[in-house]
Every structure is written in C-alpha cells, then in structure tokens.
Amino acid sequence: MSDKPLTELGELQRAVLEIIWQLGRANVHEVRHRLARKKKLAYTTVLTTLQKLEKTGWLTHETEGKSYIYIPTSTRLQAGAKSLKRFIKHVFNGDPVLMFQHLIRETDLDDADLKTLKQMIDQERKEKRND
Length: 131
Fold this sequence. Notes:
Layout: H1 11-23, H2 28-35, H3 43-55, E1 59-64, E2 67-72, H4 76-91, H5 96-106, H6 111-130
Antiparallel strand pairs: 1-2
Helix pairs in contact: 1-3, 2-3
C-alpha cells in the first residue's frame, strides 16, 4: 500500500485506480477501454499512469504472456481508511471525537442521518462488549 494519500493523486491516477479496484486486476488495454467512455487517451498515457501508480505503491503487476496485469496493493476500503486516519491526525490532532463534533455541527444532518449514526454507535458498543 502506498504512503501517499488518495487525496494527493491526480485526477487520472484516481480514475485509473478506481478502474483497477472495480475490475480487481487489468491490463493497459482494459483500463484504456474503460477510460475511453469519458475521454480518449493514448496507450502510453495510460501505461505511464499505471507505472507511476506501481512506483508509488498503489499497484503491483504480474506477467501474463507479453502483458502486465496490474493489481491493487490494497482495497478501496483500506485506502480510504488510511486516508481518513491521516486526515484526522493532521486536521483534528488525531482526535476522532473532534471530527465527529465538527461534522455534526457543520453539516445538515436530518433525523434519519442522526438515527443512522446512533444505530452505528450502538452496534459498535455491542460488538466491543462481546469481544
């Protein structure tokens, strides 16, 4: 997994990584084909992007015949969790309660949102008691 947070990736890098996460594994042609739905890119542009993602630790590859098959080094969930932890550390001095206080005060949560949050907290408490 990369030390670089998701937020520091460029738009094309994030798009390519999302495709790899969706497919599980892919070669340059598969990624290029998926990207072409929005924007036509040169093969070398997609290849360079995949190589940069591999160099920074987001991807690895296996060889199948003459093709490289790129594979993510972490799941979308793992990468998101790592980025969130880094964000909490840098913005809220590592205190997740401060982050939740900010979210509750500064966002327009309706009763359904608050009920969902309460259910999540209750479930977490229940799971911790059973451990």
